[in-house]
Write a structure and sequence with these properties.
Length: about 725
């Protein structure tokens, strides 16, 4: 009797119904037909001359032999009149043959990756289909920071293999930063003898030990670097798989490791004092030009990434040489010195036939003439650059930072903060709504960024990258009109099995639920959302823990009056994960006008002035649009109840996540007024959440106002740490 392996059985059970394929990213056009192509030991691959390398890679990956011509699996040239472009392909599967047609080798390669997915998912019985496919965007990237934590070459190769499988074409290799220099530069051996090594096995330990570098060979040193030959091998390996390696050499900031071993390149000449190169020192440009000459000899990419982000510029303000340079050039701001620096580097890189890319700070002081911008601080920088007719790669933190949490932080490995679940990645649209059609043409594509301060191992890195990278891969490859979250969820069921086969430590779909209310006409319509595919959900409205006998969620439901929604996913008769709970508060302040005596953060405006009294409680992340941010200042707001109102209680909810600098207020004070000018009857509650606790925490500051009346309620929260305060709702009864 033939045995069926349980894992295979569960995978087959997850495959979509006949009529669609479980491919990610979804092809531009697919027609599934009747019948299957059956792979046998006699199946062979053949290819026209331009596609023989692709055929050989496919043969290796699928354990199929190649022959000169006449194979059942064939790579052929598409017609010259076809509109496939450089990366497009056509894949035809019939009961007798599989044919991949393309105009260019890269298109044939992507056809082979689609075929590899079909083989991995469907095994020997590949459904007959006709696929015509090409990408929406020409730039489809993944950024990996190997400075904060160093990863071995084997992991880089594995990552490139997975990128290729999902049709990404740019590996942005973040090789240098303050925490470590990771590339051999023969003219400056101290960069790898010392700047590549540090005290502390992780970035956190290094930071806590005073950010000191060590030396290669020191028994207590941690770190590493790639030799030039290793880097060249990665470039070759990636190129065979349709991927360009984009190297990044950070400048003028994030250069603590360089200045630790070559302090004469800083303004002070003192190690560990500054993180920026001295823009007025000619030796800096000699050093960087020599470094970039060796970098460009290793990496044949059209672009060289020169960083440009988060330069402190403080030393430039006091350096006599920098001030003299500003006077000579007629500058009035150190931002103009950054532009001066970037333009000089761009001129050198252009002289070598290359172009520069930088983070969106390179816009400050004026953008270099031929620069391409990576927009990470939201979309503003990308919009500005596109309107100036500069090419842009979109990588905003809210959608593309894979160092953010992807499920309930209390259940996840430590991360830098934020919250970016799979569905939010999938919802991203790289062309900002504010651009015209012509301006939108300057958006080259998008990129996932993996910063590794809190990601010390390769297993952890995979966990943060996958499966979110599959969602972004579909965003940048598939037509916008064909993207559909439920359909993607269904196709992902087979992709999880594929990732398992490849030994990827991906983040499993969360059992956490999102409770989303919509308020209208005195009622709330409640929707329950899950990463699980077609989950069984039970819920209650009185705050009690759901059981199998509780109402089963089948569609959005209405709640009239205040309630506490609690819901859980059930699987095999058991509740999974932690129940989700959300109070539905029809409190007295809903919809009331809020006056901000101190402005809210422009970076976290949430729902504007409606945020604190719109009835919505915030979720697990301060970036979910329901947490009102206050950066570096106190919160001081006044609610106008419209008339003198009898009061029972007031509460204000805050969060703390110390990694990104989000803290509880030191105290919260409520005061009352009838005229909006003179406030009295003050009540103050202190914070009791430790400010050094790194875990995500929530606190409701609840005040007893029994027997009091007022029209105006003033709420003040003291920002002792001068970081961020986040408040989600002020609830008044």
């Amino acid at each position: 009797m033939r045995k069926i392996i349980p894992g295979v059985l569960s995978l087959l059970a997850c495959l979509p119904a006949f009529g669609q394929l479980s491919l990610v990213p979804a092809p531009a056009h697919t027609v599934v037909k009747t019948g299957t192509f059956i792979l046998t030991p006699q199946t062979r691959i053949s290819a026209a001359m331009p596609f023989r390398q692709t055929a050989a890679l496919l043969a290796s990956g699928a354990s199929i032999a190649t022959i000169p011509a006449g194979g059942a699996i064939r790579f052929e040239a598409a017609a010259a009149t076809d509109t496939l472009g450089e990366e497009g392909y056509r894949l035809s599967v019939t009961p007798k043959n599989i044919t991949v047609r393309a105009q260019h080798a890269r298109g044939a390669f992507y056809g082979s990756q689609t075929l590899l997915q079909l083989l991995a998912i469907y095994g020997k019985n590949i459904p007959c289909a006709e696929i015509a496919d090409k990408p929406r965007f020409g730039y489809r990237g993944l950024h990996l920071d190997v400075s904060r934590n160093f990863y071995p070459i084997e992991f880089i190769r594995k990552t490139i293999d997975l990128m290729a499988l999902y049709k990404l074409n740019t590996f942005h290799w973040h090789l240098t930063d303050g925490a470590g220099w990771r590339l051999e530069i023969k003219q400056y051996p101290e960069l790898t003898r010392q700047a590549a090594w540090r005290y502390g096995t992780s970035w956190k330990e290094w930071r806590d030990r005073g950010v000191r570098m060590s030396r290669e060979g020191n028994p207590n040193a941690s770190g590493g670097y790639y030799t030039q030959e290793q880097a060249k091998d990665i470039v070759r390996y990636a190129a065979e798989r349709g991927i360009t390696v984009l190297p990044e050499i950070e400048m003028p900031g994030h250069s603590e490791e360089v200045l630790a071993v070559y302090p004469e390149l800083s303004c002070s000449g003192v190690p560990y004092k500054e993180s920026d190169f001295c823009v007025a020192n000619p030796a800096v440009f000699t050093f960087l030009e020599n470094v970039l000459t060796e970098v460009m000899a290793i990496f044949p990419s059209k672009y060289i990434h020169i960083g440009g982000d988060e330069a402190g510029k403080e030393a430039w303000k006091t350096s006599a040489a920098c001030q003299e340079l500003m006077k000579k050039e007629g500058y009035t701001s150190v931002d103009q010195l950054q532009s001066y620096f970037i333009r000089k580097i761009e001129k050198f890189v252009n002289s070598k036939g290359r172009r520069i890319i930088g983070w969106d700070e390179i816009l400050e002081g004026g953008l270099a003439p031929d620069a391409t911008v990576m927009s990470w601080r939201g979309e503003k920088g990308g919009i500005e650059a596109a309107r100036q007719k500069h090419h842009v790669i979109m990588t905003p933190g809210g959608y593309c930072y894979f160092d953010f949490y992807q499920a309930n932080p209390l259940t996840q490995p430590e991360a830098i903060g934020g919250f970016l679940p799979l569905e939010k990645v999938y919802s991203y649209e790289p062309i900002p709504a504010g651009l015209t059609a012509e301006e939108g043409k300057y958006i080259l594509g998008a990129q996932a960024n993996v910063w590794t301060e809190y990601i010390p191992t390769t297993e952890h890195a995979e966990y943060m990258i996958f499966p979110r990278l599959l969602a972004l891969a579909e965003v940048v490859w598939s037509p916008k009109t064909s993207r559909n979250w439920p359909d993607f969820q269904q196709r992902m069921q087979a992709q999880f099995g594929l990732l398992q086969k490849k030994g990827v430590n991906y983040c499993r779909p969360s059992y956490d639920l999102t409770i989303r209310p919509v308020f209208a006409n005195g009622k709330a319509t409640v929707t329950l959302l899950s990463e699980q595919y077609q989950p069984e959900i039970h819920y209650t409205t009185d705050g009690t823990k759901p059981t199998l006998s509780s109402p089963k969620y089948t569609r959005p439901f209405e709640v009239a009056g205040s309630a506490v929604i609690t819901a859980s996913v059930f699987e095999d008769g058991q509740a999974k994960g932690t129940p989700a709970t959300l109070p539905i508060d029809f409190h007295k302040a809903i919809g009331k006008k809020v006056t901000y005596r101190l402005p809210a953060s422009k970076g976290y405006p949430a729902q504007g002035e409606a945020t604190l009294t719109n009835g919505y409680r915030g979720g697990l992340t301060y970036g979910d649009g329901q947490w009102q941010g206050f950066e570096g200042k106190d919160m001081d707001v006044v609610i106008d109840m419209g008339e003198s109102t009898a009061l029972r209680s007031l509460s204000a909810g805050f969060m703390q996540l110390t990694g990104p600098g989000v803290y509880m207020p030191a105290s919260v004070t409520v005061s009352l007024s009838d005229d909006g000018q003179t406030f009295g009857q003050e009540l103050t509650l202190p914070n009791d959440v430790p400010e050094n606790d790194p875990k995500l925490a929530f606190k409701s500051f609840a005040f007893d106002l029994s027997g009091k009346r007022a029209r105006y309620l003033r709420i003040q929260a003291v920002n002792k740490q001068r970081g961020f305060l986040f408040c989600d709702e002020i609830i008044v009864y």
